Amino acid sequence: MRSLKQQVLFLFISTVLCNYGSLQRGLITSGPCTFPLPHSANFSVFCQIPYHKTSYVCDPGGILSRTEVEMLQTTAIKLNMTSCFCSKFENCQPGIRIAVVLLPFVSWNSIRECDPTYTSSSISTSTILYAQLLSLRWQEHCDADVIFVYIQSWQPERLRTPLLIPLFGNQWPHLRRFSIPIVTSARETTLTSLENAMSHASRLIHVDLSPAHAAIPRWALAFGGIMLSVVVAAMYVANCISEKMGQRRQKSLVPKRGNEKFRAGFGGGVMMNSSGSQKKKSVMMFRTFSKNNHNNNNNNNNNRL
């Protein structure tokens, strides 16, 4: 009886280990170009969607527990985020369409399967490329606004540095500059890192959709152009008027030539009259002086006689 129980237990453990080994090998060999498609039969099982009961979470390695996925779902509802796989699992709902992919490890060989010429060994560049290739593969089935790709480590170097990249979709090309890998802290859990990344992405999208960034109506542009033309015309007219008034002031300050001649002639005549009178006075004084001298001389002569 014991041998039968031991055999059953051995078969159970072997089955679990075999499934786990096949899953791990599948993760290593499943690159972004060979990742299961959302419409394929093994996609739900591969992503453990029946276990997590959340359509936008693909967690083949079981990084998150069911409770953590429920907490993540609560955060997504608060941020008005929905699944991008609405065409397969549920009806499309208004909101920010997302997908969350969690991978225990990824290899550079999986990227080289898509691009044999890829030789970069940069973790940051490889993470971005992996997310872009996966988004391109899912494009027809998952038109996501943001895809969150979480990678715990890279193989075969076994670099245990968790990276999280929020990859914005084609409808947000100006937000692609924020699609950079985030090195998660060792103190943060995977759930906390995902919630922070989702909150940051939601803020970026809502700021972009705010009225300050909305498109300006055409009538407002036309009205603004007309008002600008009126202001320019008014400034031109005011400038012309000020120039003419300045010219008139300058003309009024300059004396006329006739007045100048009159002033010069009047001044010259006064000077000539004054000089003539002075000459007459001097002549009369000279005559009086000479006459007095003549009389004095006559008197002296008479006295001598």
UniProtKB/TrEMBL annotation:
Transmembrane segments: 219-241
Organism: Caenorhabditis elegans
GO cellular component: acetylcholine-gated channel complex; membrane
Pfam families: MOLO1
Cross-referenced InterPro entries: MOLO1
Signal sequence coordinates: 1-18
Protein name (Swiss-Prot/TrEMBL): Uncharacterized protein
The entry's keywords: Membrane, Signal, Transmembrane, Transmembrane helix
